[in-house]
Amino acid sequence: MDLSGAPYGSLGTLSGPSITIQELKKDRISFILTETDLSVANSLRRVMIAEVPTIAIDMVEIETNTTVLADEFIAHRLGMIPIDSTDVERIKYTRDCTCSQYCSECSVELTLHVKCTEDRTKIVTSKDLVSNNPQFQPVVEDKNDQGILIVKLRKGHELKLKCIAKKGVAKEHAKWSPVSGVAFEYDPYNKLRHTHYWIEEDAGKEWPVSGNAKLEAEPNPDAPFDYNAKPDRFYIETETVGSLKPEDVVSMGMKTLLDKLGYVQMQLKEELASHQQDQTGWSY
Amino acid sequence: MSAAQNSTSPAAMETDEVPIEVENDKLEIISGSHNDHTSMTFSLKDEDHTLGNALRYMIMKNPEVDYCGYSIPHPSEAKMNIRVQTTDRTSAIEVMDKGLQDLIDLCTVVVDAFKAEVSNGDFEYDEDAVWP
Ligand SMILES: [Zn+2]
């Protein structure tokens, strides 16, 4: 489709979607997506939260656990630990793998063995996990990061276990989400009246405008309501959990969306071919 | 020795029994009138609002389309139905294919714009800075 031309009426007046990055940090990105529809911007938001694949601990075999926490409690905590998933594309989904349960092509093995022998509390953190694949390690923020606390041990307590980390998406379990949150806003002045504020007396006083309002012209309060206006400027900001770079979350999200579309299109073509066969085979 | 699993989804258990699952029921055309190729309901497995709403928007942009809408009939069934009704100058399958292609083109533009913007580097960037 020619986005700069005039394929269908109103789209012709647009120059096509564009993106302006406002801020890019180690763990977050903020950008403005313009000249696209709300449904497309929302698809990007949804896909970043739930369909970008990462690696997370999925199975835990506990050999020794004499800590104060129950096995399943520790297993759950381990699942939530972000694992560096920069090379996630090198790992297969177990369901696509030829192995029967798991193998090095579709999983990463992490082991942990800590015992407290001193008379003071010992902490077990994500840094105590030893990965069999150096590309996939628990995330460490910087050199001052002491790791994510898993459990505290007293003298004599011991924890020994083996974890199998697998590739997955947050649609199945939120532990696979690469982001801790996505902020999504359009029309900060509520010119489109999509938001109905609950108020005591004055909406202007009780609902201060967001920071994104600085980037838009303040509307004239006497201006008539434009019932044809549609949202076309989206302020998106996301914070990652550390497993993927924020810019990669966005581009992998878009890639996931494209892969979905391509797959459906392929299936449609197949369906069409079998349909035509049906029609030549039978006469109605 | 004890074992604990922190994710036992029904889907995972099903795939244990059938190791290689060939997915060929992704898209189903719900049969209506056999002769009328201008009206069709497409049922997409494992899809939701992410694809449904954007695709609905893209298909509705086509001037040859009289009606397009989508629904997820039941929350515990991973299916999304998309209904298309067109003028008699085209067919629902053609319109669906064009909608998909248009959305692919649009997403490609967004990806390219984003990649260009990242490599352009004209924004606040701090490798070591961590929120806040
Ligand atoms: Zn495998």
Automatic annotation (TrEMBL), chain A:
Domain DNA-directed RNA polymerase RpoA/D/Rpb3-type: residue ranges: 28-267
This protein's GO CC annotations: RNA polymerase II, core complex
InterPro entries tied to this protein: DNA-dir_RNA_pol_30-40kDasu_CS, DNA-dir_RNA_pol_insert, DNA-dir_RNA_pol_RpoA/D/Rpb3, RBP11-like, RNAP_Rpo3/Rpb3/RPAC1, RNApol_insert_sf, Rpo3/RPB3_RNA_Pol_subunit
Name of a matching Pfam family: RNA_pol_L
Tagged with keyword Cell cycle: no
Any GO BP: transcription by RNA polymerase II
UniProt-annotated location(s): Nucleus
Presence of the UniProt keyword rRNA processing in the record: no
Domain of life per record: Eukaryota
Main location: nucleus
GO MF, one annotated term: DNA-directed RNA polymerase activity
Keywords recorded for this protein, A-Z: DNA-directed RNA polymerase, Nucleus, Transcription
Alphabetical list of NCBIfam families matching this protein: PRK00783.1
Family: Belongs to the archaeal Rpo3/eukaryotic RPB3 RNA polymerase subunit family.
Name of the protein: DNA-directed RNA polymerase II subunit RPB3
UniProtKB/TrEMBL annotation, chain B:
Chief localisation class: nucleus
InterPro entries assigned to the protein according to its UniProt record, in alphabetical order: RBP11-like (IPR036603), RBP11-like_dimer (IPR009025), RNA_pol_Rpb11_13-16kDa_CS (IPR008193), RNAP_AC19 (IPR033898), Rpo11-like (IPR022905)
Protein localization: Nucleus
Segments forming domain DNA-directed RNA polymerase RBP11-like dimerisation: 40-110
Domain of life: Eukaryota
Pfam families given in the database record: RNA_pol_L_2
Family to which the UniProt record says this protein belongs: Belongs to the archaeal Rpo11/eukaryotic RPB11/RPC19 RNA polymerase subunit family.
Gene Ontology CC annotation, any one: nuclear DNA-directed RNA polymerase complex
Protein's name according to its UniProt entry: DNA-directed RNA polymerases I and III subunit RPAC2
Keywords from the named record: DNA-directed RNA polymerase, Nucleus, Transcription
Example GO biological process: transcription by RNA polymerase III
Keyword Nucleus in record: yes
One term of GO molecular function: protein dimerization activity
Keyword Secreted: no
Cross-referenced Gene3D superfamilies: RNA polymerase, RBP11-like subunit (3.30.1360.10)
